[in-house]
Amino acid sequence: MHAGHGNAPLWGALFVVAASILWGTTGTAATLAPGVSPLAIGAVAMGVGGLLQAMSAARAIRRQGPGILRRWRLVAVGAAAVAVYPLAFYSSMHLSGVAVGTVVSIGSAPVAAALIERFTDRKPLTRRWIIGAFLGVGGAALLSFAGHSPGTAAGTDGEAWDSTAGIFLGLLAGGTYALYSWAAHRLIGGGIPSRAAMGSIFGLGGLLLMPVLAVTGAPLLDSWTNFSVGAYMALVPMFAGYILFGWGLARVRASTATSISLLETVVAAVLAVLVVGERLPALGWLGAAVVLGSLFILTPRTQRTRLPAAPAETMPSAPEAAGTQPASVGHQDISR
């Protein structure tokens, strides 16, 4: 795909929005297979989806093999995060509910991504990003608090422990989501096309999840419904969604992408209400509106200057997307 340099951040944001909408369906889809454990759901979704990404990008991975091998530590870190993320994410939703689990997991990711970029890449946090992320995380927090209605607050000690454990697992999911997003963005910024970068990280992560799927995945074959849920999770949100996300990471910073993906929390909460039957009070809907509002701040502005077109897969556009100065965070700085 080709895009004008000035339009790249906007297209990147739109790709992340599309991916987030697909991801927002995963929690609701998982509830349609109640007999399947969250570990099996996570393993089949990210494991099979990751292997499909690697297969579809096999040629690109072979062509970029030397460059990928030179950055094997980055690939290994990203793959480990890919393997941990779905296990923590779906376990969080199982323990805390679809809305709360999604909100905590995705809502914590922008902060984690910004901290990773700040301390590893020394990228400054722009005022625009801080305002947008603050609103987005604040809206996500409103959604989370709204998920704990007065009637459920006084539950048993076991229920309180489950909810607390779910929130901690959500924080782990948010951290690992930010980590593999950063690793993929850094690979792309170092000149590895997005298909090869995402395929190598997610393919290796998928391999790491195969033992988990082998141990926990038998219920996926117990019924056509369970099998269909597993197939949907792997093919649509994980395979197609992460291809879109890779295109987005080629155009915007990881912290910007994870912030825009807060939209997933709104999609998940709305579907949890409409399909699963969870109750979302007025405070929750206010939180959803705040998250949506933050997207208008976080979506990068289109630049007026036009430069010669370049392949989108090798064009990180990080300085332009983040509002930083190219002199301080350049292509060579990202690729180290």
TrEMBL record:
Q: Which GO terms describe its cellular component?
A: membrane
Q: Where is the EamA domain?
A: 10-144, 165-298
Q: Give the UniProt keywords, A-Z.
A: Membrane, Transmembrane, Transmembrane helix
Q: How does it sit in the membrane?
A: Multi-pass membrane protein
Location(s), subcellular: Membrane
A Pfam family annotated for this chain is: EamA
Record field: transmembrane: 39-60, 72-89, 95-116, 128-146, 166-184, 196-217, 229-250, 257-276, 282-299
InterPro entries per the UniProt record, alphabetical = AA-Vitamin_Transporters, EamA_dom, EmrE-like
Which top-rank group of organisms is this from? Bacteria
Q: Where is this region: Disordered?
A: 308-336
Q: Which family does it belong to?
A: Belongs to the EamA transporter family.
Query: What's the protein name?
Result: Drug/metabolite transporter, DME family
Give the species this sequence originates from: Pseudarthrobacter equi
